[in-house]
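Input (structure):
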């Protein structure tokens, strides 16, 4: 084999390797863009549509365990506050007695979805602002309420709404 043929074959092989590396790099970039930008943006747009009354909340949009416990705590706090405002003679006993019934609705998935959809719809009609944008979570503020969206798997296919709280000021 002559030198020019060897150089030609080496150049062709190098070109093929470079082309494969470029395709692999583009694919990796597209996967990262989907995982870190497009997937959470679609979830955010869906939550905004629910807040506007244009869509329904689905179980796949949220992480039920964390949001259910937050709703339980919120309902308990509201119940305690209401009982203190009414000057109930035994607010502690009344809270203990009323809590199971008060939180029973959010114990089922449809009840939790309904309660969370109403909370989204009750958000102020303000701009939804991204306060934290990271590869594994986004934090969104709407007035004094903060929503957290988290990526729960390496492929980015598992972005879920995980938290709704009052924003911390500081």
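Output (sequence):
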């Amino acid at each position: 084999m002559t030198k020019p043929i060897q150089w030609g074959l080496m150049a062709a092989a190098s070109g093929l390797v470079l082309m494969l590396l470029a395709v692999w790099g583009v694919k990796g970039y597209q996967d990262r863009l989907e995982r870190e930008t497009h997937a959470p943006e679609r979830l955010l747009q869906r939550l905004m549509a629910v807040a506007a009354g244009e869509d329904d909340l689905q179980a796949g949009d949220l992480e039920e365990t964390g949001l259910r416990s937050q709703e339980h705590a919120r309902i308990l706090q509201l119940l305690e506050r209401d009982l203190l405002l009414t000057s109930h003679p035994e607010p502690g006993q009344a809270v203990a007695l009323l809590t199971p019934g008060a939180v029973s609705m959010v114990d089922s998935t449809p009840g939790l979805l309904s309660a969370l959809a109403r909370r989204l719809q009750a958000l102020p009609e303000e701009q939804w602002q991204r306060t934290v944008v990271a590869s594994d979570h986004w934090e969104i503020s709407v007035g004094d309420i903060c929503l957290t969206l988290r990526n729960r798997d390496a492929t980015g296919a598992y972005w879920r709404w995980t938290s709704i709280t009052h924003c911390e000021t500081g």
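Notes: The helical segments are 3-51, 64-85, 91-103, 109-121. The two ends are 74 Å apart (CA to CA).
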